[in-house]
Automatic annotation (TrEMBL):
It comes from Leucobacter weissii. InterPro entries: Aminotrans_3 (IPR005814), Aminotrans_3_PPA_site (IPR049704), PyrdxlP-dep_Trfase (IPR015424), PyrdxlP-dep_Trfase_major (IPR015421), PyrdxlP-dep_Trfase_small (IPR015422). Keywords: Aminotransferase, Pyridoxal phosphate, Transferase. This is Aminotransferase class III-fold pyridoxal phosphate-dependent enzyme. PANTHER family: AMINOTRANSFERASE, AMINOTRANSFERASE CLASS-III. One of its GO terms (molecular function) is transaminase activity. SUPFAM superfamilies: PLP-dependent transferases.
Length: 442
């Protein structure tokens, strides 16, 4: 333990010790302040130490700390299920809870499996995802993520699945010199679906707005209508991964609602508890829930912490604060301000090639601003930029995706939904200073 810690390090970067947080700010042991421009991993939607959520957590912990899902129902989880189902809207009638986004995705895969079995089509056991996607780090969720490098080390433990091309508008615009790539994206989705093994495919799992591996890939108009049509035509379920885009992040309660879209299962985590409790889950459409209930009578997510009252109480309090303080609308308004500011920085920069996003989920992609092309991986632009931001007291989230062998340097800028206008200005100032430093260095 020469480095003075018994904790296995998560990264080779030297990390500061975080000792205190308030709102969008975190302080380290030396008293240096950091503006949280990424809500941690796009999770801390209410910022640090929100008093109402902290109070709800303390109250629940001292009222009923644990109740096992096979022995009791409990009030906070009953309430949270009702709240989530009502926010998901028409067509949804049940929710299930687990402890993380990865677990929630795996639960959704299991539900899709069971659904087709109940429909008399047990051969439907395969899944489709997109290139440039991220769905988690457990064995199944890492495997279905659209970056083979995540799962390469675990090949003997995982199975192959099929992928369709992600709606990467910027890449098509640059690589193929096409001014309006939207029709191409739709055409490719149609082509890719036609080539799938439909007979054996249970579902497509897709991030509504691509995040960790894609830096806010926003699909073009018509994309989700077409996806619904194709899923119906080929008898596949549509699982919307809203782990990052859910609960206000995109300026709607769920990202799919921006497009009036109609998924069968919705996976959530992160924002549902603002990151204060390990909480995730799946919202089930009536079509799926009724079929499963008729076939099986009950479905258990299976984990010790499923339906945990502490996590659920945090979820209920988080959603109450979001309603009361109008944070979904705020995300939309502050998001416009943040997006405009990032686009202005792009105009002045030699190394930003694309700024894209919705609500408070923005992606900034780096490259050669003149040609729009990516930088060589060896330049290590993204990690260096993250370091440069940290030196300026700003946290951004590396979202280095790349597609089909092309590396893509990018970061997510996605501050807590409670960010004030003055703090957006401060975020943009720190972002531009960090970029200037790095550009000068390079
Ligand atoms: N899906 C998406 C879209 C995510 O962004 C993430 C986390 N970055 C996950 C799943 C996995 O969630 P968790 O880290 O809570 O397991």
């Amino acid at each position: 333990m020469s480095d003075g810690t018994a904790l296995m390090p998560s990264t080779t970067r030297q990390l500061p010790l975080a000792t205190r947080g308030a709102g969008v700010w975190i302080w380290d042991a030396d008293g240096k302040d950091y503006l949280d421009g990424s809500s941690g991993p796009v999770a801390v939607n209410l910022g640090e130490c929100h008093p109402d959520v902290v109070a709800a957590l303390a109250e629940q912990a001292s009222t009923l700390s644990f109740a096992h899902r096979l022995q009791f129902r409990n009030p906070p989880v009953e309430r949270l299920a009702r709240d989530v189902v009502s926010l998901l809207g028409k067509g949804f009638d049940r929710a299930m809870f687990v402890s993380s986004g990865s677990e929630a995705n795996e639960l959704a895969l299991k539900l899709a499996f069971m659904y087709w079995d109940a429909q008399g089509l047990p051969e439907k056991t395969r899944f489709v995802t997109t290139t440039n996607s991220y769905h988690g780090s457990t064995l199944a969720s890492i495997q279905i993520s659209g970056q083979p490098r995540y799962s390469a080390a675990f090949r003997p433990l995982v199975t192959e699945n099929e992928r369709v091309r992600a709606p990467y508008l910027h890449r098509i615009r640059i690589d193929e010199s096409i001014a309006d790539p939207a029709p191409i994206v739709l055409q490719r989705l149609r082509e890719d679906f036609a080539g799938l093994d439909h007979e054996h495919t249970a579902a497509i799992l897709i991030e509504t707005v691509g995040g960790a591996s894609a830096a806010a890939l926003v699909p073009p108009p018509g994309y989700f209508e077409l996806l619904r049509e194709l899923c119906d035509e080929y008898r596949m379920l549509w699982i919307a991964d809203e782990v990052m885009s859910g609960f206000g992040r995109t300026g709607r309660w769920f990202g799919f609602q921006r497009w009036g879209a109609d998924p069968d299962l919705v996976v959530f985590a992160k924002g549902v508890s603002g990151g204060y409790a390990p909480l995730g889950g799946v919202g089930l459409s009536r079509r799926v829930s009724q079929s499963l209930l008729e076939a099986k009578g009950a479905i258990s997510a299976g984990h010790t912490y499923s339906n945990n009252p502490l996590g659920a109480a945090v979820g209920v309090a988080t959603l109450e604060v979001m309603h009361r303080d109008g944070l979904v609308l705020a995300a939309d308004e502050r998001g416009d301000m943040l997006g405009d500011g990032l686009r202005r920085i792009k105009e002045r920069s030699a190394s930003i090639v694309d700024v894209r996003g919705v609500g408070l989920m923005w992606g900034v992609e780096f490259g050669d601003a003149e040609t729009g092309r990516p930088l060589p991986s060896s330049a290590g632009f993204t990690p260096r930029f993250v370091e440069s931001c940290a030196a300026e007291g700003l946290l951004v989230y590396p979202a280095r995706g790349g597609i089909d062998g092309v590396s893509g340097d990018a970061v997510l800028v996605s501050p807590p939904l409670i960010i004030s206008e003055a703090e957006v200005v401060e975020l943009l100032n720190r972002f531009e200073r960090a970029l200037r430093h790095l550009e000068t260095e390079i």
